[in-house]
Amino acid sequence: MQKRGLSSVVSRAVKGECKTWRPAVPVLVVIVLVSVVFAEIPEKRRIAELIRHDQLPAAEQQLWGVLGTHPDEVWALELMGELRARQKRNAEAVALFHRVLELDPSGLEAQRRLGALYQSEGNAAEAARAQEAIQQSVPGDRDANLALATLYEQTGKYQESVAAVERIPVPSRPTSLLPLLADDFFQLQQPEKIPSLISQVLRLPPAKLGTALDFVAVLLHNGYVQDASKLMQKLMPTTRPAKRGAAYLHVLARVREAEGRKPEARQLLAEALRLQPKSFDILFDCARVAAEENRWKDSVELLKRANEVKPDDPAVLMKLAVEYAQIGELERARLASRRLYDLEPDNPDAQYVYGRILQDTQRFQEVLDPLARKMVAARPDDPHALFLLGMVDYDEGKEAESRQQLTHSLQLDPKNNDTRYYLAMLDERDGNFDEARSGLEEVVKTDPNHAGAQQELGVIRLRQGDVAGARTALEIALKLRPDIPQTHYQLGLVYARLGMTDQAKTQTVAYEQLHQALNDKLKREIYPQSADTKSAQQ
Question: For residues 535 and 516, what is the distance between their CA atoms, to the nearest angstrom?
Fold first, then answer.
């Protein structure tokens, strides 16, 4: 008897040749399930395409249509998570991917997307956990091991980073791992493994110049200046600088700076910035060089441009806050430091800068008092927290409490000249002028650009009859902060003592003008309506 397949039987039944034949129930179930699956695939692909092309409202509407009838449909939940991630609604995306993993614990794609989300938020620990889950299921998963190598290196797990790289077969390893491996080996005190990596860098094609430059940066960071210089020469030994590109010029500038060839480094940086005026890294480095040369206004302008390219970067906000204060733009310094503090409230440096600027702008107590006390309660041996609380108590006139906090802070951080400055100010309040003078002289010895210390040192020296010493300190203070009325007043007294009548009058006039301007500003802030009315009448 000739055997017939299911397709031939079905075909004959459709044609009416087997009128009495009926398919078995299991066959019907298989046909139904296959039809459902094939119907589902085009729908999933269609929605995925909408998301890929950023047609998010249409994709979301269709996904809600699926989830309305099938709330636990894994593929729909996963696509909704991807959609939420594209909308920057990360918390919802994370929740959706976790739900997918509850329904399908083996879902590698959901784990991968979770890891990417956590990594984009800077949550390296959770990102690593997600990638580790993939690696445990599929030990040789290239993408998971690649992500883990980076995450482990970022969190200081250098041996684990190397192990993750070694799980990737050599032919499949991207060349971008060479700088990462170099940093791992340096951190593990294994510099003997670097030469083999350098050999691989030298064999990279020109298209991988960026990787080679990253490798040079790692050498520089770890103090291998000579090796970095030699590698740069071998990367492009004959090409003229103008033809080498901004990235190459930027790294070469860093090498020349490390070699002590600063004029050449400045020229290379300027050329790199001309070629790539919106490069965050080049702008940031140019700002650093300007600040080191005391070109504060140039540095601020460069930092503002860097902030436009990469808004709210903490390193930029920190420098902006400090350098705005350096050029006397205290309100802008306050805004930058407040933004930094909002972004990183647990960063001691952010707390410190914010606290200093709050005091300079007369907004110290209203914000910092409860904050400083909470900080010290949580971290009783943190020098930054103790310093801030000492400043609060100082401003409130609680001299004993302030001295206690500042003394403890200085014991923990002996290099903090601001702490030493405020302790000297407390000595001055108590009439201990010799101790105050000694403390201030110690401050200006290590930090001659400390304007407050120079001014107070001049005042104390004048009080003690050291007119020449007072003149030296006050003239330095005036150069550093010409906007402080009291400095002009004290320097006028010094010039009067020395018989320098014209100079004394000049300083007195400057004092009166600045003092009046400050009084007018204060009146406008306290009585804004009356000030506006007066201006309108004029």
Answer: 17
- The rounded distance, in Å, linking the Cα atoms of 298 and 189 is 40
Burial class (CB in 10 A: 0-12, 13-18, 19+), 442: middle
- Torsional class of 470: left (φ above 0), alpha (ψ -120 to 50), beta (otherwise): alpha
- From CA 415, how far away is CA 512, in angstroms rounded? 37
Q: Which of 171, 220, 162 has its CA nearest to residue 193? A: 162
Is the Cβ–Cβ distance between 460 and 490 less than 8 Å?
A: no
DSSP-assigned letters across all residues of 364-422:
HHHHHHHHHHHHHHH-TT-HHHHHHHHHHHHHTT-HHHHHHHHHHHHHH-TT-HHHHHH
Residues of the chain whose pLDDT is less than 50? 1-39, 238-239, 242, 531-536, 538
Rounded Cα–Cα distance for residues 474 and 522 (Å):
26
Residues 6 or more apart whose CB falls under 8 angstroms from that of 395 comprise 359, 364, 365
Residue 424, CB-side half-sphere exposure with 13 Å CA sphere? 24
Note the pLDDT tens digit of each residue in 120-153.
Answer: 888 888 999 999 999 998 988 999 999 999 999 9
Give me the helices (H) in 188-313, please: 194-202, 209-221, 225-235, 246-258, 262-275, 280-292, 296-309
Per-residue pLDDT at 23: 46
Query: What is the tens place of the pLDDT at every residue in 257-279?
Result: 999 999 999 999 999 999 999 99
CB atoms within 10 A of CB 131: 29
Encoding tokens for residue 244?
Answer: 């080498």
> Please, are residues 305 and 286 in contact by the beta-carbon 8 Å criterion?
no
What φ, ψ does residue 230 adopt, rounded to 5°? Answer: -65, -40
Would you call 217 helix, strand, or coil by DSSP? helix
Measured between its terminal Cα atoms, the distance across the chain in Å is: 116
Handedness of CA 289, 295, 300, 301 (dihedral sign): negative
The number of beta carbons lying within 10 Å of the beta carbon of residue 343 is: 13
Give the angle subtended at the CA of 390 by the CAs of 387 and 396, to the nearest 5°: 145
Is residue 470 a contact partner of residue 461, using CB atoms and an 8 Å limit?
yes
CA–CA dist 133, 141 (Å, integer): 11
Question: Rounded to 5 degrees, what are φ and ψ at 422?
Answer: -70, -30
Instruction: Please say whether the beta carbons of 252 and 278 come within 8 A.
Output: no
Please give the backbone phi and psi of residue 216, each rounded to the nearest 5 degrees, phi first.
-60, -40
